[in-house]
Amino acid sequence: MTRNEQVPRKITFITGNQHKVKEAQGIFNHFQIEVEHVDLGYPEVQGDLDEVALFGSRYAAKRLDKPVIVEDAGLFIRELGWFPGTYSSYVQSTLKNKGILKLMEDVRDRYAEFRSVVGFATPNTEPEIFLGVVEGHIAREERGNYGFAYDPIFIPNGYDKTFGELKREIKNRFSHRRRSLEKFALWFEDYRGD
Ligand code: ITT
Fold it and tell me: Cα(72) to centroid of ligand 1, in Å?
């Protein structure tokens, strides 16, 4: 059977973020994977993205007694010592984009990257993780209403628009989340576990 003739497979995606669900659906369409969304909530351990994805997927697979994926992401700005990084969620709800732009006011090196780590686990097996990165830089001002959170201040390499100015289908072609979910999807095609 060729890839295109494959029967759709389902994966349970644990997240509290509706934007991520929509992006994941758009991406998984290319791989004949159907997304079942569950907003279970899982304890986010203090640690890097890998640790959060490992712990979260292990925890959720055991709680739901089925295979699951979780995804942990963040914006990493080089000149700020890779801040906000694992504090992205907290910083987005406190400093917000305006606060980041203020911190970056006199900064010339504006390099930043979004990173995304997908964790896949089953109740009986150790998690697998998949990293996706997109490189770019921080804009001088917020632009665009598409996307969410840091999208209006992030300009991906090769573009002069922010993610906030790019429609979801364009962001989905090469975003950090596209890259981590695509790695997972290709691996999952050959996965024959439980
Ligand atoms: P979960 O329930 O899946 O954990 P979350 O919104 O808490 O959802 P993360 O912890 O993975 O998501 O992400 C941390 C923050 O990073 C998130 O709240 C956003 O502020 C930011 N972020 C992640 N992905 C982003 C993206 O594609 N565009 C803009 N900001 C993003």
Answer: 7
Among candidate residues 50, 72, 106, 160, the one labeled active-site is: 72
The class (CATH top level) of 3-189 is: alpha beta
Whether 39 is catalytic: no
- Residue 107's φ and ψ, nearest 5 degrees, are -90, 125
Answer whether 162 contacts ligand 1 (Cβ < 6 A): no
Domain boundaries, the chain: 3-189
CA gyration radius, the chain: 17
* Separation CA 7–CA 22 (nearest Å): 21
- Tens digit of each residue's pLDDT (9 = 90 or more) over 123-148: 999 999 999 999 999 999 999 999 99
Quick one: pLDDT at residue 82? 98
